[in-house]
Amino acid sequence: MASSRRGGAERLMGRPLRVRAFRRLWTAQFVANIGTWTQTVGAQWLMGDLGGSALEIALIQTATTLPVFLLVVPAGALGDVVDRRRQLLAGQSLMLAGAGLLSLMAALHHVSPGSLLALTALMAVGQGISVPVFQAIQPELVGPELIPQAALLNSANANVARAVGPALGGLLIAALGPEATFALNAVSFVGVLFVLATWRRERADRPLGAERVPAAIRAGARYIRSAPAFTSVLVRTALFMAFASALWSLLPAVARGPLGLGAGGYGLLLGCIGAGAIAGAALMSVLRTLIRTELLVTGGMVMFALTTATTGFVRSVPAVVVALLLTGLAWVAVLSTLNSSAQLLLPGWTRARALAYYQLAFMGGQALGAVGWGVLADLTGLTAAVVTSGLGLLAVTALATWRMPLPDSRHDMAWSGHWPEPPAVDAGPGPVLVTVEWRVQPTRTGEFLRAMRLVGRSRRRTGATLWGLFQDLEEPTVFLENFTVATWTEHLRQHFERGTEFDREHDERARACTIDGEPPRVRHYGWAAPARPGRHVLGHR
Question: Average pLDDT, stretch 29-50?
């Protein structure tokens, strides 16, 4: 029975790879991911060769992630506005240029700590432009029915490469020197650029035209504020990365110092993480069918915390090897589950900009964490810093599991045109007030109010800036819902671009409570004051 279930899960996970466009890009991206992490290890080791302290070595992680942290939100909004293929080509070309220049300078021995950090940051700029868009195009490649499997494969791609790449980097450093890792990274981008250049992407259907980037950024932030399930994923990701970054940023110093290893030994340690990650990716297709999302993430975070503390405390290389094998498994279990959960919770219209916030949590936790753990290591020593990160991760895992549990059910985020046709009017440039009058059965008032709390979130997710619900004091069966939208065009996007099946279900629950199934009466009001439209418009947050 277990064998049959395992085989079915593995076949299901492999279905997206039968799609030619997805398979080509997945393979090219895997090679590029390996090259990126190979170069990261080379940069960390070269910084040590240049006489860098533990803090300066940790700053490599910061240079790798901080530009992504700063750029990923506007890049995600841009990915929902412009052609995503062209945006990816621009980002990957910038990464190729940075890697090629660093490879040339390293071969000529003209690299300083400052130039090493600067070129690392330049490549991170290209990554920041690309990251949210890479995730957002997956439904275009495989179709909505294969999104869960594609998300898991992409998570396995990124996380296995993150573990395999550093292991390969350690071997290249030992054999040829750090400059070999930079050259490999430059070559690795060629495949991605070729696949993107030959991909014939269908033009996105935007009946209302493209949004402006500032408005798209605001719409993405508004969506996240009203999507508590997605917010839980963001918080758990940020907490995990803030503490897990200690191992990635300080392991080179642990290998050089307490364990007394050279580049080859460091490569062995990273290889152990890689082996554990590969095992974790192979197990995930089975574990996700047997274990709830919350238990899988919590268990992985606890395992990562314990193995990190072990790595910092013990001085036995065999014990550290075993701990790092489990570290790789836990790493993939946590991040592949969080990443796939994030993608499954998002509709197509906001996928790139909302996933940008996921990357913001991921990269921000890593960038800021790396600096903090590097400073702590300089002040208290490597052992104290690494062990503290493990114990701290245990504490925040317990708190997050209690306060922000992860969603276990999957919502239907396919588009649904369940809103009635809007009037053909020109409301002008100002805000729009929409009122919806509901006549509710007296015996179902409580049920209606519960449904409307979810309807209110739906309105805010899709564009409402203010929302409120009022009950008629003279006729208690009458309820007046009102919400404001920044512009008439933004309200039309609610009608024609942003509603999902998940939103429709909430609306139908509210409609089921009305008297004789009577549909609510909707009215639209444009801004009529002679002064410039202001912020004080009727409604409640």
Answer: 84
